[in-house]
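Standup notes, structure subgroup. Blocker cleared on the NAP input:
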Amino acid sequence: MYAMTLPTFGDPDVLTWAEVDDPVPGPGEVLIEVAATAVNRADLLQRQGKYPAPPGSPAWPGLECSGRIIGLGAGVTGWHVGDEVCALLPGGGYAEKVVADAGLLLPVPGNVELADAAALPEVAATVWSNVFALAGLKAGEQFLVHGGASGIGTFAIQLAKAWGAKVAATASAAKHDALRALGADLTIDYRSEEFEDLVSADVILDIMGASYLERNIEALAPGGRLTMIGTQGGVKAEFDLRRLMAKRAWIAATTLRARPVENKREIIAEVREQVWPLVEAGKVLPVIDRRLPLTEAAEAHRVVEANAHVGKVLLTL
Ligand SMILES: NC(=O)c1ccc[n+]([C@@H]2O[C@H](COP(=O)([O-])OP(=O)(O)OC[C@H]3O[C@@H](n4cnc5c(N)ncnc54)[C@H](OP(=O)(O)O)[C@@H]3O)[C@@H](O)[C@H]2O)c1
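Run returned:
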């Protein structure tokens, strides 16, 4: 089969379409013929040599995919050859075929095209596990998501809104209309406005890390919860613990890829139970900025690197 490999690290042009060995599903795994994969911010870091593939996973990027099951490893139950699925992957989605853990599969919702379903697993699992399972966002609470136009942000806005929360999002001004159409009640231009003066949030989903830490604590309501999933604004910060104590607030930080597979299976099972009905009801849908052939992955990386997109950039086969 062919895959979009990384013979070396560097700019987008290092991505190379090359012949590689066909993957073979082990016990508890399925083999998927990939219809589409999606670009995640982490793929850019992996391409630059800053986020290595975990042991046992293919060396090329791709944290999610959609496609058809074409093979079953020993002991797989509940899935059949021919099933249309989308999957959370530790890597390797930029390929014609990929092996996935059977516990990390989700059925393609009836109202979503097979290719478009590739936009769902990573954002659904990340947003569900942080904003809902961990931070416990409730109906009526105020939610703030940074980077509302990102793949993560566009999904978080819709899910929080469908949950009955009030939603604020930071983004470039040109993207505000799109975010309001997705359900954001308040959009904040992070270049010209101070979000901590405009919102008192029960839950914040942050992708900036160090550069926003103090300001995020300012923006928390009493009893607020800040969950950090990205470090686009740096990794080291200082803050006054008393500000956190006075608000009885807490901070968490997580990464999905580093979780043990058993934990990822639990998250996927919760996503299927709690989030998938909202997708099937059309309340939360994949937001696709554009679809490019997988062979044009370098161009797709340039689009994402320039933040020229709203939602997800798909790579199709
Ligand atoms: N920990 C985890 O498990 C996990 C899982 C998935 C993703 N992530 C992280 O979540 C983030 C989003 O991922 P993605 O793939 O969805 O990203 P993406 O689509 O590439 O979007 C990145 C976004 O960052 C926004 N941004 C840049 N500077 C900003 C600032 N100062 N304030 C607010 N927003 C700013 C951009 O907004 P504009 O375009 O509006 O300028 C852009 O929409 C990334 O940091 C990624 O690493 C973490």
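Discussed briefly. The pocket of NAP is lined by residues 40-42, 122, 126, 146-147, 149-152, 170-172, 175, 190, 207-208, 229-230, 232, 254-256, 304, 307 (CB under 6 Å).
Next: hand off to the docking folks.
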